[in-house]
Amino acid sequence: MTYLVGLTGGIGSGKSTVGARFAELGGGLIDADAVSHALTRRGAPGWQSIRAVFGEGYFTPDGELDRAKLRQAVFADAAAKSRLEGALHPLIREETDRQVAASTAPYVMLMVPLLFESGRYRERCRRVLVVDCRESTQVSRVVARSGMAPGDVGAIMRSQMGRAERLALADDVIDNEGDPLLWSGAATRLDALYRHLARA
User: Fold this and answer.
1) What are phi and psi of 134, to 5 degrees?
2) Which partner for 3 in 31, 63, 193, 198 could form a disulfide, CB atoms 3.0-4.6 Å apart?
3) Which of 12, 22, 10, 16 is nearest to 194 (CA)?
4) Which of 53, 39, 48 is nearest to 92 (CA)?
5) pLDDT tens by residue, 158-192
């Protein structure tokens, strides 16, 4: 069975950067967000499921999913969020399971922003690596990359698990506050650990 490591962190923490480093070191990397995006392209199974559950009001005239409108709806309505999860999560689970099974890497990282919030992901992972930085750094990074207002970034952060709680649940932590050179050694050591645990 493939040794699965969960990779998570708050918005703007740098999960993708850290995940890419482990991939460079030879670990497998599966991005649950990328899987979700692929499943919700026009005509894909997730697109069809969302259309069946939410109707045509969340699609553009040319049939593309209106991601911003749907994101706004589920952010404001717990029932809508639950319906979206019911429509997508089984498909994401099936596809990530397929990718894990197909991997020939010594271990696989499953990158999930809300890993702790969703027990379905946490229970699959043997260890969890949290990418961490100051909350002010999270806000500044997201504002710089997406142009979102700081208040909107803060609202997203408040909808996620708090930093202290996430750190308390972590098996491993990478501090991504500054230059990647500062944490590359930690990544190399963790890569060796995960390879050892996978062999054991």
Assistant:
1) -65, 150
2) 198
3) 22
4) 39
5) 888 899 999 999 999 999 997 777 788 899 999 99
